[in-house]
């Protein structure tokens, strides 16, 4: 037999004599994932009344928001930013997902909102810290519970102008430690031209302030990814409308908002970009969001933390040397 | 007048004719023209400029540049005035719009209403000085007659900044709260928000502008309209700078993929009601309340402060404290006299020359 593939080092599929069954691994993975289920943690940030709870409910087609779960929920503005999370297990076609929605009531609602992002930054870092601790144990759990924030959806009010100072401050800080997906909330007050202009201005502002939102260009894995993600990047932030009410349109039941001048169909791409957001977050990029969180944001945190503790160990050792 | 007097002798009460006074006032006012100062306040992007353009059917903000986020970070609250002279059917209106860019836009908005309250007080002070002065012929009334406050439709009611702002201003100016960009709300959401806002206005003791009560002798239809108007507050408004085609007509509106919002359609929003209140029915009342209540309160407070200050200094020169008047300048008076005499001489010379030319022609 001739020496084959010595230069390349790999044998391509068509070089095999018969069907080996390697691709069956995919099936095995799928089945395992289905059995084990998976976790997804999504944080929603924005001022009171921008439709965070409604959007989350609409995205996951269930009542998963904190508003829907508390028995005597009263909508009032809280004086400090207090993060609250609600978890649900939702199932679809045999696949189980433990969805955690982290809400940030009080953000941006006060007269003085200085540093209102700090509790959020702390929370994100705490989850990384927790995971790191579990990872460092000698006897590790087979599956470390993952409470890290995989995605932070930031709600921009549909003013039509530019980003506000609070938007810039928040996204600058959080963009470094978590994947931010900014959206234009309650976008049914913008006409199509106003929407395009607003998006352009926002993208300009993001660039001018060095804010990196998801999907970040540097994490594109290959040209195929790049093409796909470029298309998304040209379109963000998505202009979204949410609702849990259904109406009849042309004999079909659709999710929509009924006004005196027409019905805004949430899942109609000609009306708003809700489906684009849903596809991004759930149908196409959910695993990628988790990967970016684990491989990039978490690793950055880990490296920093370990260096810090090395430094403290170093300085403590040096102190000991001084004394002894 | 006299002919009326003679003709109506048979009536019980002799007709004197002063019932025509309103007509006389009307005629004089038309000649003189009106002025009205309207302030608009609220965060950026609430549609204030668009609404003002829609109300007065002008484009006051043609050359406006929107600040981007970087420029906004160090922005402070400014006061900008635009004045426009509008004339309709021979009636002149000098309209002044007072804009408050920067309000509520920063991260820290503590006391962001102070520049606005300072401005209103300054106008009162200016008027007080002018009113107390010697030459009162051409007093300029720059007092703010009405302040439209734009509440975002995105919230669940009043936010802390809304409450604080309105409380800082309600005793200085007529505050008319509006729900901005109402086209992102369904009818039931509008109702819920209005109820909530009305409730909170009462709960926080905010004194918004109240429409005067109907006279008891008005007809039922008028009373009904008045009642509907009052129940409609705060008005949910939509504005537009563009004209669109709707139901075969060209109207001011907003074109969406799901339908067309017509600004002047009363089932779409309360724009027409607001315009009627502001311009067609209550403009005069807004001015009256400003003069009779807000300004008088300011004046009384001012005098009280000055009196207490004087008694503190132990100098009671006159029972009615006066603001320091400009002292007549002797030098200026002399110069004026000189100029007058020179003008008289020049006029004389001109007359003589004209006479010469006239005589020359005859010859």
UniProtKB/TrEMBL annotation, chain A:
GO terms for biological process: cell division. SUPFAM superfamilies: P-loop containing nucleoside triphosphate hydrolases (SSF52540). GO terms for molecular function: GTP binding. Keywords: Cell cycle, Cell division, Cytoplasm, Cytoskeleton, GTP-binding, Nucleotide-binding. It is found in: Cytoplasm, Cytoskeleton. Its main location: cytoplasm. Pfam families: Septin. The keyword Iron-sulfur does not apply. Residues 36-308 form the Septin-type G domain. GO terms for cellular component: cytoskeleton. Belongs to the TRAFAC class TrmE-Era-EngA-EngB-Septin-like GTPase superfamily. Septin GTPase family. PANTHER family: SEPTIN. This is Septin 12. The lineage of its organism: Eukaryota, Metazoa, Chordata, Craniata, Vertebrata. The gene is LOC118938378.
UniProtKB/TrEMBL annotation, chain B:
Residues 32-305 form the Septin-type G domain. Pfam families: Septin. The record marks 154 as: Important for dimerization. It comes from the Eukaryota. InterPro entries: G_SEPTIN_dom (IPR030379), P-loop_NTPase (IPR027417), Septin (IPR016491). Keywords: Cell cycle, Cell division, Coiled coil, Cytoplasm, GTP-binding, Nucleotide-binding. One of its GO terms (biological process) is cell division. Residues 336-363 form a coiled coil. PROSITE patterns: G_SEPTIN (PS51719). It is found in: Cytoplasm. One of its GO terms (cellular component) is cytoplasm. This is Septin. The lineage of its organism: Eukaryota, Metazoa, Chordata, Craniata, Vertebrata. The gene is LOC110525803.
């Amino acid at each position: 037999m001739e020496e084959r593939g010595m230069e390349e080092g790999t044998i391509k599929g068509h070089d095999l004599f018969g069907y080996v069954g390697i691709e069956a691994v995919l099936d095995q993975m799928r089945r395992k994932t289905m059995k084990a289920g998976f976790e997804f943690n999504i944080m929603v940030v924005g001022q009171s009344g921008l439709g965070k709870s409604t959007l989350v409910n609409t995205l996951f087609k269930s009542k998963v928001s904190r508003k829907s779960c508390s028995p005597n929920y009263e909508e009032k503005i809280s004086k400090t930013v207090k993060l609250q999370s609600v978890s649900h297990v939702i199932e679809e076609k045999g696949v189980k997902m433990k969805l955690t929605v982290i809400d940030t009531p009080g953000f941006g609602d006060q007269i003085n909102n200085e540093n209102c992002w700090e509790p959020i930054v702390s929370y994100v870092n705490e989850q990384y810290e927790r995971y790191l601790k579990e990872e460092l144990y000698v006897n590790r759990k087979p599956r470390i519970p993952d409470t890290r924030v995989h995605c932070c959806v930031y709600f921009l009010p549909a003013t039509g102008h530019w980003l506000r100072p609070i938007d810039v401050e928040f996204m600058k800080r959080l963009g470094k430690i978590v994947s931010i997906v900014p959206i234009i909330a309650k976008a049914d007050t913008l006409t199509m031209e106003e929407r395009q202009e607003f998006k352009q201005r926002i993208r300009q502002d993001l660039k001018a302030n060095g804010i990196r939102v998801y999907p970040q260009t540097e994490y594109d894995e290959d040209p195929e990814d790049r093409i796909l993600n470029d298309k998304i990047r040209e379109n963000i932030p998505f202009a979204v409308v949410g609702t849990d009410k259904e109406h009849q349109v042309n004999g079909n039941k659709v999710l929509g908002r009924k006004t005196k001048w027409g019905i805004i169909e949430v899942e109609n791409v000609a009306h708003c970009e809700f489906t684009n957001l849903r596809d991004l977050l759930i149908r196409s990029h959910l695993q990628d969001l988790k990967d970016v969180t684990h491989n990039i944001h978490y690793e950055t945190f880990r490296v920093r933390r370990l260096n810090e503790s090395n430094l403290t160990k170093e300085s403590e050792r040096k102190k000991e040397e001084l004394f002894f | 007048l006299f002919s009326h007097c003679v003709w109506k002798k048979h009536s019980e009460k002799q007709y004197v004719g002063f019932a025509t006074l309103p007509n006389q006032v009307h005629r004089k006012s038309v000649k003189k023209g009106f002025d009205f100062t309207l302030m608009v306040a609220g965060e950026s992007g609430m549609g204030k400029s668009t609404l003002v353009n829609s109300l007065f059917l002008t484009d006051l903000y043609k050359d406006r540049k929107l600040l981007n986020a970087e420029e906004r970070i160090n922005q402070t609250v400014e006061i900008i005035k635009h004045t426009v002279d509008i004339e309709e059917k021979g009636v002149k209106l000098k309209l002044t719009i007072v804009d408050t860019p920067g309000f509520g836009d920063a991260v820290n908005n503590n006391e962001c209403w102070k520049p606005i309250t300072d401005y209103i007080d300054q106008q009162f002070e200016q008027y007080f000085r002018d009113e107390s002065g010697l030459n009162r012929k051409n007093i300029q009334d720059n007092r703010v007659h009405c302040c439209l406050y734009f509440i975002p439709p995105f919230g669940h009611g009043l936010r802390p900044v809304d409450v604080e702002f309105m409380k800082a201003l309600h005793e200085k100016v007529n505050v008319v709260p509006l729900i901005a960009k109402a086209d992102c709300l369904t009818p039931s959401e509008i109702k819920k928000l209005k109820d909530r806002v009305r409730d909170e206005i009462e709960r926080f003791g905010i004194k918004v502008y109240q429409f005067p009560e109907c006279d008891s002798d008005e007809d039922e239809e008028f009373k009904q309209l008045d009642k509907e108007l009052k129940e409609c507050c705060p008005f949910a408004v939509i504005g537009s700078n563009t004209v669109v085609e709707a139901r075969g007509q060209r109207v001011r509106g907003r074109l969406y993929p799901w339908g067309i919002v017509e600004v002047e359609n009363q089932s779409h929003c309360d724009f027409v009601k607001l315009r009627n209140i502001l311009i067609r029915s209550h403009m005069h009342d807004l001015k009256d309340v400003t003069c009779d209540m807000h300004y008088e309160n300011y004046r009384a407070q001012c005098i009280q402060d000055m009196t207490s200050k004087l008694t503190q200094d132990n100098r009671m020169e006159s029972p009615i404290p006066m603001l320091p008047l400009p002292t007549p300048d002797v030098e200026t008076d002399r110069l004026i006299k000189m100029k007058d005499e020179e003008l008289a001489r020049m006029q004389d010379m001109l007359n003589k020359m004209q006479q010469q030319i006239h005589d020359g022609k005859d010859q």
